[in-house]
Amino acid sequence: MKKIKLLILDIDGVMTNGTKIYDLDANVVGKSFHDHDFSAINDLKLQVPIIFLSKDDRVNGAMAEKRNIPFLHVHKNEDKSEYLEQLCEQYNCEPNEMAYVGDDVHDIKLLKQVGYAFCPSDAIKEVKNIAYTINKKAGKGVINALRSIIKELI
After folding, report:
1. pLDDT category, 154, cuts 50, 70, 90?
2. Could you count the other beta carbons within 10 Å of the beta carbon of residue 134?
3. How sure is the predictor about 142, in pLDDT bands with cuts at 50, 70 and 90?
4. Nearest to 86 by CA among 95, 76, 96
5. Which site among 26, 44, 93, 111 is 20 to 30 Å from 52 CA-CA?
6. How far is it, in rounded angstroms, from Cα 17 to Cα 70?
7. Which residues, at least 6 apart from 124, have a Cβ–Cβ distance to it below 8 Å?
8. CA angle, 45 as apex, 41 and 48 as ends, to 5°?
9. What's the confidence (pLDDT) of residue 51?
10. How far is residue 6's CA from residue 32's CA, in Å, rounded to a whole number?
11. What is the mean pLDDT of residues 98-109?
12. Bridge partners of 100?
């Protein structure tokens, strides 16, 4: 069994429940995160590199920067799996040494390519068919619940 050398996290639908708060100009101004996830990330990043992978660079990117967590912005029309080679080079690891937590259709291809695929309990059926389902809904401490599993694999 390969050890995890990189933990990749989707944000919306994993660390948040996908709900967005908009201002009167239709700009996203807020999301709700579970603080236990950040405690788990701070604990895990002492042992394994962690990176956020998200299409929302405004709110999610700002949050990642504030929390000193690397953030890779996925451009609107790109598939997240297109970043796999870049991540392999940047973190000196192979796809089977990576873990990814995703929840939706745009995560499927990458979930199939990494060694360890995880999802929240309310992920779409197609994701649940290919990923290990964590017994937490999105935004309710998914990463915290995953912490002990990841620690066994690093």
Report:
1. confident
2. 22
3. very high
4. 95
5. 26
6. 21
7. 103, 104, 105
8. 125
9. 97
10. 25
11. 95
12. 8, 117
| Residue 6, strand partner residues | 98
Q: How many residues does the chain have?
A: 154
Rounding to the nearest 10 degrees, give the CA dihedral for residues 90, 63, 143, 98: -10
Distance CA 97, CA 99 (A): 7
Q: What residue type is 18 in one-letter code?
A: G
Q: Which two tokens stand for residue 61?
A: 């990117």
In angstroms, what CA-CA distances link 154 with 44, 48, 81, 150? 9, 7, 22, 6
Spatial CA neighbour of 117 closest among 129, 18, 30: 129
Residue 125: partners with Cβ closer than 8 Å, 6 or more residues away = none
Contact 81, 74 (CB under 8 A): no
Which H, E and C letters describe the chain, residue by residue?
A: CCCCCEEEECCECCCECCCCEECCCCCEEECCCCHHHHHHHHHHCCCCCEEEEECCCCHHHHHHHHCCCCEEECCCCCCHHHHHHHHHHHHCCCHHHEEEECCCHHHHHHHHHCCEEEECCCCCHHHHCCCEECCCCCCCCHHHHHHHHHHHHC
